[in-house]
Amino acid sequence: MVPNHTLRHLIDQWLQMGTQFDPLLCTIDCLASLKKNLESDEATLEYKCQTLQKIQALTEESQSGNSCLLQLGFLPLLLELLFGKTESKLSQECVKFAEQALSWVLRLLSPGEYEYLNMLNEESKLESFQVLFDQGTGKIKRSLCQVIEAISSSLETRELCAKLGKNRKLLKGLILLVHQTHEASDAGIKAISALCCLESNRQNLVQEGVINRLLTYIFDAERHERNLTPKALSTIELLLELESAKAALINNPNGIKALIKMVFRFSEHEGSESAVQSLTIICTDSLQARDEAIGAGVLTQLLLLLQSQCSARTKTKARMLLKLLRSRWD
């Protein structure tokens, strides 16, 4: 048995030293030390990769891990490490570090942190972003697409969103992603759709050929796994506010056919509504488009849609399109 006075002494000693054994404080101290490794100019990229792996191991079981990292300023540090230096050609070590660092950036990014992305308003940092996008792996490209989505979703980064929309090289790269691997095309379509929040960006995307790329993606939906066909359709619907987009769709040999194929296919989702609305926009302004749509079987697809379980709003739009097409014979 331990004497009462000895037990009391041990308890008092434990209470006085308790903070030394606080797992949260211990984690913060370790993270602060690891942050210094990342900040060091003498540390190699390989060593910094190892540091990021240690941070992963330290925080993966901690509910407060992300909060600690944000409080210690890891997000702006990682962004600076990623985009602070402009490299004309990426080394393998740089690519490996960029993959890991971007994963952490996306993990830490939340609407309250988007303002940190405004660092990309600096030309040198935006140039680094472009180099990473051009030369990076598929994983890096997908991660950067997610960064673009974040930028496009916030009022705090609206100026940066407009700057990205003026970067023709970046827009071309995003449009090219649409016909790459499944994961790449999904990331590209999400980023393109996000950039369309600004009218100026829409105009530039149309000029770079986004309509034809999206139409090909939609037209090939039956042959390939196209999970984002509804989003591609809604993006086209939005772009059709522009006369240049209407012209691009009408001049595409498969443009109207691609939309008609989607009228009934996505009857339980927003895809049908976007397809019908896009056809209505095109057919309202063009007798040629009406004739082509009728010849391609749009009437049958609309009637099938009206008999389906689609929303009342979609059925209303389908009836409006039928009425418009019927006027062809009035």
From TrEMBL:
Q: Which Gene3D superfamilies match?
A: Leucine-rich Repeat Variant
Q: What InterPro entries does its record include?
A: ARM-like, ARM-type_fold, ARM_PUB, PUB22/23/24-like
Annotated metabolic or biological route of this protein: Protein modification; protein ubiquitination
Top EC class per UniProt? transferase
Q: Does the record carry Transferase as a key word?
A: yes
The reply on keyword Transferase is yes
Q: Which domain of life is it from?
A: Eukaryota
**Any single GO BP term:** protein ubiquitination
Q: Name one GO molecular function term.
A: ubiquitin protein ligase activity
The protein's matches in Pfam families, at most eight in alphabetical order, are given as: ARM_PUB
- Chain ranges of the U-box domain: 47-329
Catalytic reaction equation(s): S-ubiquitinyl-[E2 ubiquitin-conjugating enzyme]-L-cysteine + [acceptor protein]-L-lysine = [E2 ubiquitin-conjugating enzyme]-L-cysteine + N(6)-ubiquitinyl-[acceptor protein]-L-lysine
State the PANTHER family in the record: U-BOX DOMAIN-CONTAINING PROTEIN, WDSAM1 PROTEIN
- Stated role: Functions as an E3 ubiquitin ligase.
Could you tell me what this protein is called?
Answer: U-box domain-containing protein
- Species of origin reads Populus euphratica (Euphrates poplar)
Q: What is the lineage of its organism?
A: Eukaryota, Viridiplantae, Streptophyta, Embryophyta, Tracheophyta
